[in-house]
Amino acid sequence: QKEVEQNSGPLSVPEGAIASLNCTYSDRVSQSFFWYRQYSGKSPELIMSIYSNGDKEDGRFTAQLNKASQYVSLLIRDSQPSDSATYLCAVLLYSSASKIIFGSGTRLSIRP
Amino acid sequence: GAGVSQSPRYKVAKRGQDVALRCDPISGHVSLFWYQQALGQGPEFLTYFQNEAQLDKSGLPSDRFFAERPEGSVSTLKIQRTQQEDSAVYLCASSKDRVTGELFFGEGSRLTVL
User: Fold this and answer.
1) Which of A56, A93, A100 should we substitute to test contact with B (largest number of B Cβ atoms within 10 Å)?
2) B4-24: pLDDT as tens digits
Protein backbone atom coordinates (compact mmCIF):
# COMPACT_ATOMS: atom_id res chain seq x y z
CA GLN A 1 0.00 0.00 0.00
CA LYS A 2 1.35 3.40 -0.97
CA GLU A 3 1.60 5.95 1.81
CA VAL A 4 -0.48 8.53 -0.08
CA GLU A 5 -2.90 7.50 -2.81
CA GLN A 6 -4.74 9.60 -5.35
CA ASN A 7 -6.73 8.84 -8.47
CA SER A 8 -4.50 9.91 -11.35
CA GLY A 9 -7.40 11.15 -13.47
CA PRO A 10 -7.76 12.97 -15.71
CA LEU A 11 -10.76 14.51 -14.05
CA SER A 12 -12.76 16.66 -16.45
CA VAL A 13 -15.11 19.26 -14.99
CA PRO A 14 -17.14 21.94 -16.80
CA GLU A 15 -16.32 25.55 -16.09
CA GLY A 16 -18.28 26.89 -13.15
CA ALA A 17 -18.86 23.47 -11.58
CA ILE A 18 -17.35 22.01 -8.40
CA ALA A 19 -14.23 19.89 -8.77
CA SER A 20 -13.72 17.26 -6.08
CA LEU A 21 -10.29 15.72 -5.53
CA ASN A 22 -9.65 12.88 -3.12
CA CYS A 23 -6.70 11.42 -1.27
CA THR A 24 -6.19 8.58 1.21
CA TYR A 25 -3.17 7.99 3.42
CA SER A 26 -1.83 5.04 5.36
CA ASP A 27 -0.01 6.60 8.34
CA ARG A 28 -2.80 6.54 10.91
CA VAL A 29 -1.16 9.05 13.27
CA SER A 30 -0.18 11.71 10.73
CA GLN A 31 -1.42 15.16 11.72
CA SER A 32 -0.55 17.49 8.85
CA PHE A 33 -1.95 17.43 5.34
CA PHE A 34 -1.44 19.61 2.32
CA TRP A 35 -2.66 20.25 -1.19
CA TYR A 36 -0.21 21.47 -3.80
CA ARG A 37 -1.01 22.56 -7.33
CA GLN A 38 1.42 21.87 -10.16
CA TYR A 39 1.00 23.37 -13.60
CA SER A 40 2.56 21.49 -16.49
CA GLY A 41 6.29 22.09 -16.60
CA LYS A 42 6.26 24.04 -13.34
CA SER A 43 6.99 23.29 -9.69
CA PRO A 44 4.40 22.50 -7.04
CA GLU A 45 2.95 25.39 -5.06
CA LEU A 46 1.07 25.13 -1.78
CA ILE A 47 -2.62 26.02 -1.94
CA MET A 48 -4.07 24.56 1.28
CA SER A 49 -2.96 23.04 4.55
CA ILE A 50 -5.23 21.30 7.07
CA TYR A 51 -4.48 19.88 10.48
CA SER A 52 -7.86 19.27 12.16
CA ASN A 53 -10.86 17.17 11.28
CA GLY A 54 -13.53 19.02 9.34
CA ASP A 55 -13.51 21.67 6.67
CA LYS A 56 -11.16 24.56 6.00
CA GLU A 57 -12.16 27.17 3.45
CA ASP A 58 -9.97 29.63 1.56
CA GLY A 59 -11.68 31.49 -1.23
CA ARG A 60 -12.92 28.99 -3.82
CA PHE A 61 -10.98 26.16 -2.16
CA THR A 62 -12.19 23.92 0.67
CA ALA A 63 -10.05 21.21 2.21
CA GLN A 64 -11.75 18.43 4.14
CA LEU A 65 -10.08 16.05 6.58
CA ASN A 66 -11.41 12.87 8.14
CA LYS A 67 -8.71 11.26 10.25
CA ALA A 68 -10.85 8.28 11.22
CA SER A 69 -11.22 7.37 7.56
CA GLN A 70 -7.69 8.56 6.70
CA TYR A 71 -9.17 10.68 3.95
CA VAL A 72 -8.42 14.19 2.69
CA SER A 73 -10.24 16.00 -0.07
CA LEU A 74 -10.10 19.29 -1.92
CA LEU A 75 -13.13 21.01 -3.38
CA ILE A 76 -12.78 23.76 -5.94
CA ARG A 77 -15.93 25.82 -6.41
CA ASP A 78 -16.74 27.81 -9.55
CA SER A 79 -13.98 26.01 -11.45
CA GLN A 80 -12.03 28.13 -13.91
CA PRO A 81 -9.87 27.08 -16.87
CA SER A 82 -6.88 28.40 -14.90
CA ASP A 83 -7.54 25.66 -12.32
CA SER A 84 -6.47 23.06 -14.89
CA ALA A 85 -3.40 21.50 -13.33
CA THR A 86 -2.21 18.47 -11.39
CA TYR A 87 -3.19 18.52 -7.73
CA LEU A 88 -0.83 16.79 -5.32
CA CYS A 89 -1.87 15.58 -1.89
CA ALA A 90 0.97 15.59 0.67
CA VAL A 91 1.26 14.20 4.19
CA LEU A 92 3.81 14.97 6.88
CA LEU A 93 4.55 11.54 8.32
CA TYR A 94 4.24 11.57 12.11
CA SER A 95 6.59 8.62 12.40
CA SER A 96 9.37 10.51 10.66
CA ALA A 97 8.70 14.13 11.70
CA SER A 98 10.63 15.23 8.66
CA LYS A 99 9.39 13.27 5.69
CA ILE A 100 6.69 14.86 3.57
CA ILE A 101 5.25 12.32 1.19
CA PHE A 102 3.36 13.23 -1.96
CA GLY A 103 0.75 11.29 -3.83
CA SER A 104 1.09 10.77 -7.56
CA GLY A 105 -1.34 13.61 -8.24
CA THR A 106 -4.70 14.01 -9.94
CA ARG A 107 -4.78 15.77 -13.27
CA LEU A 108 -7.71 18.18 -13.42
CA SER A 109 -9.03 19.64 -16.66
CA ILE A 110 -11.65 22.39 -16.66
CA ARG A 111 -13.51 22.49 -19.95
CA PRO A 112 -15.00 25.85 -21.06
CA GLY B 1 16.99 35.51 -2.37
CA ALA B 2 13.39 35.96 -3.33
CA GLY B 3 12.83 32.30 -4.08
CA VAL B 4 14.49 28.91 -4.22
CA SER B 5 17.04 28.86 -6.99
CA GLN B 6 18.25 25.68 -8.67
CA SER B 7 20.99 25.14 -11.22
CA PRO B 8 21.47 23.91 -13.80
CA ARG B 9 17.90 23.98 -15.08
CA TYR B 10 18.75 21.34 -17.65
CA LYS B 11 21.53 18.80 -17.67
CA VAL B 12 22.30 16.13 -20.24
CA ALA B 13 24.77 13.52 -19.10
CA LYS B 14 26.20 10.43 -20.71
CA ARG B 15 25.66 7.25 -18.78
CA GLY B 16 28.45 6.85 -16.26
CA GLN B 17 29.14 10.56 -15.81
CA ASP B 18 28.91 12.26 -12.44
CA VAL B 19 26.55 15.25 -12.02
CA ALA B 20 26.07 17.89 -9.36
CA LEU B 21 22.85 19.79 -8.87
CA ARG B 22 22.76 22.95 -6.79
CA CYS B 23 20.02 24.43 -4.65
CA ASP B 24 20.05 27.89 -3.09
CA PRO B 25 17.10 28.07 -0.66
CA ILE B 26 15.21 31.12 0.51
CA SER B 27 17.43 33.10 2.86
CA GLY B 28 16.95 32.06 6.46
CA HIS B 29 15.05 28.87 5.69
CA VAL B 30 16.14 26.14 8.04
CA SER B 31 14.66 23.09 6.35
CA LEU B 32 15.68 21.87 2.91
CA PHE B 33 14.35 18.91 0.94
CA TRP B 34 15.31 17.14 -2.26
CA TYR B 35 12.71 15.31 -4.32
CA GLN B 36 12.88 13.33 -7.54
CA GLN B 37 9.96 13.62 -9.94
CA ALA B 38 9.55 11.30 -12.90
CA LEU B 39 7.21 12.22 -15.73
CA GLY B 40 3.58 11.87 -14.70
CA GLN B 41 4.42 11.03 -11.10
CA GLY B 42 4.39 12.91 -7.85
CA PRO B 43 7.61 14.08 -6.20
CA GLU B 44 9.46 11.25 -4.45
CA PHE B 45 11.26 12.15 -1.22
CA LEU B 46 15.05 11.82 -1.36
CA THR B 47 16.51 13.58 1.66
CA TYR B 48 15.98 16.29 4.29
CA PHE B 49 18.29 18.77 5.99
CA GLN B 50 17.74 20.89 9.04
CA ASN B 51 20.44 23.53 8.81
CA GLU B 52 23.60 21.59 7.98
CA ALA B 53 22.42 18.32 9.49
CA GLN B 54 21.09 15.65 7.16
CA LEU B 55 18.33 14.21 9.32
CA ASP B 56 16.76 11.84 6.83
CA LYS B 57 18.31 10.29 3.74
CA SER B 58 16.07 7.28 3.55
CA GLY B 59 14.78 8.18 0.09
CA LEU B 60 18.13 8.20 -1.67
CA PRO B 61 17.77 5.32 -4.16
CA SER B 62 21.34 4.07 -4.01
CA ASP B 63 24.79 4.87 -2.73
CA ARG B 64 25.43 6.70 -6.00
CA PHE B 65 23.33 9.55 -4.62
CA PHE B 66 24.85 11.94 -2.11
CA ALA B 67 23.63 15.26 -0.73
CA GLU B 68 25.28 17.88 1.42
CA ARG B 69 24.57 21.27 2.93
CA PRO B 70 27.83 22.11 4.66
CA GLU B 71 27.04 25.64 5.88
CA GLY B 72 23.32 25.27 6.34
CA SER B 73 22.34 27.23 3.25
CA VAL B 74 23.27 26.07 -0.26
CA SER B 75 22.85 22.35 -0.90
CA THR B 76 24.29 20.09 -3.56
CA LEU B 77 22.86 16.78 -4.76
CA LYS B 78 25.51 14.64 -6.41
CA ILE B 79 24.82 11.60 -8.54
CA GLN B 80 27.75 9.40 -9.39
CA ARG B 81 27.97 7.08 -12.40
CA THR B 82 24.60 8.21 -13.74
CA GLN B 83 22.25 5.67 -15.25
CA GLN B 84 19.27 6.09 -17.54
CA GLU B 85 16.81 5.50 -14.72
CA ASP B 86 18.20 8.60 -13.00
CA SER B 87 16.55 10.75 -15.69
CA ALA B 88 14.01 12.91 -13.89
CA VAL B 89 13.37 16.39 -12.57
CA TYR B 90 15.12 17.00 -9.26
CA LEU B 91 13.23 19.43 -7.09
CA CYS B 92 14.60 21.31 -4.14
CA ALA B 93 12.26 22.84 -1.56
CA SER B 94 12.81 24.86 1.60
CA SER B 95 10.72 25.91 4.57
CA LYS B 96 11.41 28.59 7.13
CA ASP B 97 11.52 26.55 10.32
CA ARG B 98 10.98 23.05 11.61
CA VAL B 99 9.06 21.00 9.18
CA THR B 100 5.57 22.33 8.68
CA GLY B 101 4.82 20.98 5.24
CA GLU B 102 4.66 24.47 3.79
CA LEU B 103 7.36 23.99 1.21
CA PHE B 104 8.62 26.49 -1.33
CA PHE B 105 9.94 24.74 -4.42
CA GLY B 106 12.59 25.74 -6.89
CA GLU B 107 12.01 25.35 -10.62
CA GLY B 108 13.84 22.05 -10.65
CA SER B 109 16.78 20.58 -12.50
CA ARG B 110 15.84 18.32 -15.39
CA LEU B 111 18.41 15.56 -15.79
CA THR B 112 18.52 13.47 -18.94
CA VAL B 113 20.92 10.55 -19.01
CA LEU B 114 21.71 9.19 -22.47
Assistant:
1) A100
2) 999 999 999 999 999 999 999
A chain contacts of residue B105, beta-carbon cutoff 8 Å: 43-45
Concatenated DSSP letters of A6-71: E----EEEETTS-EEEEEEES-TT--EEEEEEE-TTS--EEEEEE-SSEEEEETTEEEEEETTTTE
Burial class (CB in 10 A: 0-12, 13-18, 19+), A52: exposed
The pLDDT tens digits of the residues spanning A30-71 come to 889 999 999 999 999 999 999 999 999 999 999 999 999 999
Residue whose C-alpha is closest to residue A101's, from A25, A21, A9: A25
Alpha-carbon distance of A95 to B110, in angstroms, equals: 31
The pLDDT confidence band at residue B34, using thresholds 50, 70 and 90, is very high
Residue A37, H or E segment: strand A32-38
Q: Name the minimum distance, in Å, from the CA of B100 to any CA of chain A.
A: 8
| Of residues B96, B99, B106, the one with CA closest to residue B43 | B106
Q: How far apart are CA B92 and CA A31, in angstroms?
A: 23
